[in-house]
Design a protein that fits this description.
Strand order of the largest sheet: 7-8-6-5-9-10-11
InterPro entries: Ade_phspho_trans (IPR005764), PRTase-like (IPR029057), PRTase_dom (IPR000836), UPRTase/APRTase (IPR050054)
CATH topology: Rossmann fold
Protein name: Adenine phosphoribosyltransferase
Number of strands: 11
Subunit structure: Homodimer.
Number of domains: 1
Bound molecules: adenosine monophosphate
Catalytic activity: AMP + diphosphate = 5-phospho-alpha-D-ribose 1-diphosphate + adenine
Strand content: 25-35%
Keywords: Cytoplasm, Glycosyltransferase, Membrane, Purine salvage, Transferase, Transmembrane, Transmembrane helix
Structural class: alpha/beta
CATH class: Alpha Beta
CATH architecture: 3-Layer(aba) Sandwich
Length: 197
């Protein structure tokens, strides 16, 4: 069946399923809880934990990602600690590829490569095991939320330094007013954001 078009919804054909991106956007937004001034004054924290109480929404999120990365060469999914593990591992499982944990400094026990980066709040260092993937492999980078793009930029720079190729990005949430998409678009054409603010 060919791709269906609808004037109100941007639809995606995943096998026999038509997944409406506008619907998942609304479902995610109605589940997300805004926490003002967390973890510090001025930040409105997008709490995704209510999504985790809804197994069918979790499944729809992963299915949407799978549908929207169809056609990309993906050898592994890299998920960023810690909320990037929630859907990143499930996505890797559905795609049938390994999962690469991108962790905060000092958490990974084997030999690591690391990178320092800036957050919307504060700074941090991320690490990847040196044997997490092979040079030349195509890595899909996943996190729960795209804000300024600093975190995934650091992760992508690290993956590239380790010989990987950035296949694309998936995020549950994007804060468009912080222009993260602009910052990361040079890494890969495919940037999937399910719920955009
Ligand atoms: P950034 O590097 O600015 O794109 O920030 C993205 C990372 O910080 C993700 O791992 C998010 O989990 C976290 N983050 C940044 N801002 C927020 C926010 N307003 N609400 C929830 N998480 C956030």
């Amino acid at each position: 069946m060919g791709q269906k078009f609808c004037p109100f919804f941007n639809s995606i054909n995943s096998g026999s399923d038509i997944i409406f991106t506008a619907m998942i956007d609304l479902q995610i937004k109605s589940a997300i809880r805004d926490i003002p001034d967390f973890p510090k004054p001025g930040i409105v924290f997008k709490d995704i934990t209510p999504i985790l109480k809804d197994p069918s929404l979790c499944e729809a999120i992963v299915d949407n990602f799978v549908a929207r990365v169809q056609g990309l060469k993906i050898d592994a999914v890299a998920g960023i600690e810690s909320r990037g593990f929630l859907f990143g591992l499930q996505l890797a499982g559905k795609l049938g590829v390994p999962f690469v944990p991108v962790r905060k400094a000092g958490k990974l026990p084997f030999s690591v490569k690391q990178k320092e980066y800036e957050l919307e709040y504060g700074t941090a260092t991320i690490e990847v095991h040196t044997d997490a993937f092979k040079p030349g492999q195509h890595i899909l980078v996943h996190d729960d939320l795209l804000a300024t793009g600093g975190t995934v930029t650091a992760a992508s720079d690290l993956i590239i330094e380790m010989g990987g190729i950035i296949a694309g990005f998936t995020f549950v949430v994007g804060l468009n007013f912080l222009n993260g998409k602009e910052k990361i678009k040079h890494f890969a054409d495919k940037v999937v954001v399910l719920a955009e603010y």
